[in-house]
Design brief:
21% of the residues lie in helices and 25% in strands. The protein is α+β, with helices and mostly antiparallel strands and 323 residues long. Strands 4, 8, 9, 10, 11, 13 and 14 form a 7-stranded antiparallel sheet that branches. Strands 3-12-5-6-7 form a 5-stranded antiparallel sheet. Helix 1 runs parallel beside helix 3. A hairpin with a 7-residue loop joins strand 10 and strand 11.
C-alpha cells in the first residue's frame, strides 16, 4: 500500500504517492489515478446548471479512461487491466490538450521489460492533478464567425438581436464548455454619415470586440462583466456584460449582452441577446446609420495533438430589430 504524500485534485479522488523501496502497489493505488483520468475523459457530469456549479463540473466526453481498473491480486502491466502504459497514454493526451509539460518518465511509454520507478509513478499523479486543476484551459483555441446579420436602416432608439447555439444533446454542450470552449457575439458599424454619433458607435462596438461566454465567466475587451458563465445561466435572460464608454453627450448610450439556456436540467440551446441603446433618441445627437453587423462567434478548443474532438453547435442568427 502506498504511504507517501497524498495528492488531492479539487473535487477528485485522493491519490497517494509511493515511497521507493518501501511500498507495494495495491489495486486501490492504481485505481485512484485511473478514476481521476476517467472523470476528465468521460461524459460530462449532469447536475442541473445555474447557481454556480462551475467548480463541480467535469468531463470532456472523450470516451473515458483508456485503461480498465486493476483488481486485487492482479499485476501492474503495460496494457490491459492495470496497464500503466495505457494510463500514460491518457495523461500524455490530456497534457497535450491543456499545454501542460509532461513530467519526467511519464512521456516514456513502459514496456513489458520496463521497471516503473517511484518517481515516474508519482510524476504521473502530479500530472493528473495539474490536468484536473487546469481542465477548462486548453493549450489553444480557434475563433471563428459562424454566422452574421446586418442592418442598413438608420436608428435612434434601441436595437436588439438574438443568436441561438444548438447542440445535439446536453452532454455535447457541457463537453464543449468543459473543454474550454466559448460562444459569443461581436458587432461593428461602418459607412454612413460622417458625424460624431456614428464614430462613437463604431468605437464603442470595436472596444467591446468579442463578448465570450465561457464555462464560468464572460469576457470582452471592454465593459463590465457580471462574471457569469454557461454554468450560471437559467432559462430567463441574465445580463452578462454592459458597456457605456462614450463621450458627452453619448455617455448614456450602451451595449448590453444577455444570455440564457432553454432548460437548466438538460440544456441543449444557448441564446445570446445583444442590445444597443442610443439613449439620446435623436434629440441630443444624430441618428446612427451605415451598416451595422452582428456576428455569431465561436472560440473552439483545439486538439493540440491530443486527438480530442469537441462538438460544434448549429448557430441561428436572428435579424436586428428595433428603430
Amino acid at each position: 500500500m502506498a504511504s507517501g504524500t497524498t495528492i488531492s485534485p479539487p473535487g477528485g479522488t485522493v491519490m497517494t504517492q509511493v515511497v521507493a523501496g518501501t511500498d507495494l502497489i495495491s489495486a486501490a493505488d492504481f485505481n485512484a489515478p485511473r478514476a481521476n483520468i476517467d472523470a476528465l475523459m468521460k461524459a460530462a457530469t449532469t447536475a442541473p446548471i445555474g447557481g454556480g456549479v462551475f467548480d463541480s463540473t467535469i468531463g470532456w466526453n472523450q470516451g473515458g479512461a483508456g485503461v480498465a481498473a486493476a483488481s486485487a491480486g492482479s499485476t501492474v502491466q503495460d496494457t490491459g487491466p492495470g496497464g500503466f502504459k495505457d494510463m500514460q497514454d491518457d495523461v500524455q493526451a490530456m497534457c497535450a490538450f491543456l499545454g501542460i509539460t509532461v513530467r519526467a518518465g511519464v512521456g516514456s511509454d513502459v514496456t513489458t521489460s520496463t521497471t516503473i520507478s517511484a518517481a515516474t509513478w508519482n510524476n504521473l499523479m502530479l500530472n493528473i492533478n495539474e490536468c484536473r486543476i487546469n481542465r477548462f484551459s486548453p493549450a489553444s483555441r480557434t475563433a471563428s464567425t459562424d454566422g452574421a446579420t446586418s442592418r442598413t436602416a438608420a436608428w435612434t432608439n434601441t436595437l436588439t438581436q438574438e443568436t441561438t447555439w444548438t447542440f445535439a444533446n446536453h452532454q455535447d454542450i457541457r463537453a464543449f464548455f468543459n473543454g474550454g470552449g466559448a460562444l459569443g457575439v461581436s458587432a461593428s458599424r461602418s459607412g454612413g454619415s460622417a458625424h460624431t454619433q456614428n464614430t462613437q458607435w463604431t468605437n464603442k462596438l470595436s472596444a467591446v470586440s468579442d463578448c465570450w461566454i465561457y464555462a464560468g465567466t464572460t469576457t470582452a475587451s471592454a465593459g463590465t462583466s457580471a462574471g457569469l458563465g454557461f454554468y450560471d445561466l437559467g432559462s430567463a435572460y441574465q445580463q452578462v456584460l454592459i458597456y457605456y464608454g462614450g463621450a458627452s453627450p453619448y455617455t448614456s448610450d450602451y451595449v448590453k449582452v444577455e444570455a440564457k439556456v432553454n432548460i437548466t436540467t438538460e440544456p441543449t440551446v444557448l441564446t445570446i441577446k445583444i442590445t444597443m441603446v442610443d439613449a439620446g433618441d435623436n434629440v441630443l445627437d444624430e441618428s446612427v446609420d451605415g451598416t451595422l453587423t452582428v456576428n455569431a462567434r465561436r472560440n473552439h478548443p483545439n486538439a493540440s495533438g491530443s486527438g480530442f474532438t469537441f462538438p460544434v453547435a448549429t448557430d441561428g442568427v436572428g435579424a436586428i430589430s428595433g428603430s
